[in-house]
Amino acid sequence: MEAAATLIAKHTLMIFGVIILAGMACGLLSKKLRVPDVALLLIAGMLLGPAGLGLVTITTDSALNQLILIFGASYILFDGGASLRLSVLKQTWITLSLISTLGVVITGAVTAFTAHHLLALDWPVACLLGAVIASTDPATLVPVFRQVKIRERVAQTVMSESAFNDATGAILTFVLLDLVSGQAEFHLLPAFGTLLWQAAAGVAAGAVLGYLAAMGIAHARFKFLAEYAPVVTLVAVIGAYLGADGLAASGFMAVFVFGIMLGNKDVFGFEQEAGEAQQLEEFILTTAFVMRVFIFILLGSQVDLALMQAYGLPAVGVVLVFMLVARPLTVLLCAAPDRRAKWSWQELLFMCWTRETGVIPGALAGMLVGLNITGAKVIASVTFVAILATILIQATTTQWLAKKLGLLVEA
């Protein structure tokens, strides 16, 4: 008779196999349908979860679930940072700075106000909901803009925003988490100081580790880790997250900045050979895809359908305000005044519509459910609606809108 630990290991291995197979199928289908794979992964998770076929049964409060969410979110943020090009900052840094910081607060505040009234949530829980879904998603936007070729500075700005505001949204979420869990009273100045410390220390930790990693894999003389570059990303992402977390800083900000440093290593005088660079890029893309598969199938499998039905119409109302009011208001207040960038109204309108919600909000919602935070299931349900709505409606109409606005360019 097999030991209980062996049976659990085999069952977990079976679940992993099912998730990976489903992820591959969703990836192939997404290419056929020309839609981001995140929505298909969510639907697959619902079909495979306890409410469906019962093949994926990892509970939200398990250590395995939290491990997947934390590492998966960290690696995807690292990938988002690596896709950021510093050259974009020269022209659009004012817009990026405002929309990735103040913009997250504006979006979160409008969403919180709406959730408080439509869902009758207490203000702390409503604010936490706003913070969770306030950021956009590089894991969705980057593939979209690889398929839809639009004006470079617009695409780079939107992708850069999505990479940076994930970290901002994550920091804001955890600053509010203590308030919701009853561990602290809210005071504006201390909360702002905490936010600054988490961001600054996270940036410092990620910058140092990113520079050392870039030197180790691409320095002309000291690249002793060149052949282990893919492994370096795994170890460094874990080290950046845990190192910053040990400093009471943002682990998410650290892994994001680490990605920026590694993705822009040429700026610091480090260059990889063509074959090594391609190998590293392929490894990062593949690993980020695997993490995306696990996070979204797990999130889909853990959706409470009864709760979705109970909060269906109010949740849809919150998401509609989120898409049609909060996002345009954020863009107009943060991008329109930027005289340096000189955005045209066509570019502004495109940015108003392009704000897919995805991996990091999904991971944050999953973490809150796993921690049994008050209102976490409602937050997860609204997040699920936001992810589906923004991806199925906004992502699939990106090319059409870009063409109407004259922003498409020749491939």
Characterization of the model:
- The protein is mostly helical and 411 residues long.
- It has a single domain, classed as Up-down Bundle (Na+/H+ antiporter like fold), CATH 1.20.1530.20.
- Helix content is 75%, strand content 0%.
- The chain has 17 helices and no strands.
- The radius of gyration is 21 Å and the shape is globular.
- It starts with a helix and ends in a 7-residue tail after the last helix.
Q: Short summary of the structure?
A:
The protein has about 400 residues and is mainly alpha-helical. The chain has 17 helices and no strands. The chain starts with a helix and ends in a 7-residue tail after the last helix.
Q: List the helices and strands in order.
A: HHHHHHHHHHHHHHHHH
Rg on CA atoms, Å: 21 Å
Task: Characterize the main sheet.
Answer: none
Low-confidence spans: pLDDT under 50, at least 5 residues?
Answer: none
The top level CATH class name: Mainly Alpha
CATH T-level fold name: Na+/H+ antiporter like fold
Number of domains: 1
Count every beta strand, where a strand is a DSSP E run of 2 or more residues. 0
Mean of residue pLDDT values? 84
What structural class results from the helix and strand content? mainly alpha
Beta-strand share of residues: under 5%
Number of helices: 17
Please state the second-level CATH architecture: Up-down Bundle
Helical residue percent?
A: over 70%
Shape category: globular
Distance between the first and last residues' Cα: 61 Å
